[in-house]
């Protein structure tokens, strides 16, 4: 027993001294002190989609975050990672297994035989391998946790984008009705003038062709609207075809009423969940170096047994046999395999570091692109609003001149086309502006 106590003390000391923890310093890539644009801050960060002021969108996002299947899968993987982390931590504690055996000895003196016992094993982790495995499992758990949060970030943004597309197509359908009415009025006027001998049949054909072109757009808009609605159904774990977007009233593009939150690039991006997940993968790779380096050091296991009985059924609880030992494994020669595995783990860590920096740069690019898009589409929408006002005036004047015979139908149709095109472009620009706000919040990792 004294020898056993000495072995345990030595193992404890060796375990305390041994460390395989690999420190990895993440050199942040250079980031600009400010973003490329100067937009007013909003203060809105969590539940950023509330900035649209659209209760239908709010309900869809909340339903999606609760029911989305990708989020469910990520949550289950987080549960699996938590279980594996508990399993790795359990290896630091002693394990005990029980055994029992019974049989019939067929001899001249046949008798029942029975034995029972306990088998225990303790690994004091003198080479630090178990601790490194725990760190690797903890990093896997952290990555799974960040991945779950990242799925929520992505799902919220995609739902917002598909809803914006659904509203965009609704606005396009309303505009199509207005444009059709406008062109039908023009066709009636041209037809009356033709019947009165004041216009050529060519003018009637031109007006009819423009009307047919406008009507032909309905099918394409309907396809896009149906695709957006079906995409929303999938995101909300609803069967496409049976799902219908709740009535949103007038088909207007959601207008984001706030600017982006204040902050500098590095501060905003350090909380983005895919960056944090990449950092966790880097930590896991560093832990793998520790696991491989542990194999270069001696390892110690301490087995113990407790046998009960002398082999006979009557003596099952009469005799006891206790045995404790120690097994020391000394790595001597393996042809360089262990050191090669350490080198492979070190190269993998460097690869993970490069991937981390790549993820960071990609995220920075997404933020910059979204900010530039917000500013550009806002300016475009303002300009298109002016263009619509001017086109409406031009169309009104050309119609009046045409009735007086002072302008050709070509002038009327050209002004009409410009007005319709400007209205269509404004709808697309407003939708792109709304989507750019969603892209910005997704890029900075808003909750």
TrEMBL record:
Subcellular location: Cell membrane
Segments traversing the membrane: none
MF annotations from Gene Ontology: efflux transmembrane transporter activity
Lipoprotein in keyword set: yes
Keywords: Lipoprotein, Membrane, Palmitate, Signal, Transmembrane, Transmembrane beta strand
Keyword field contains Glycoprotein: no
Membrane topology of this protein: Lipid-anchor
Coiled-coil regions listed: none
Cellular component terms per the entry's GO annotation: plasma membrane
Signal peptide: 1-18
InterPro entries linked to this entry: MdtP/NodT-like, OMP_efflux
Pfam families: OEP (PF02321)
Family (UniProt): Belongs to the outer membrane factor (OMF) (TC 1.B.17) family.
PANTHER family in UniProt: OUTER MEMBRANE CATION EFFLUX PROTEIN, PROTEIN CYAE
Full protein name: Efflux transporter outer membrane subunit
Native source species: Qipengyuania atrilutea
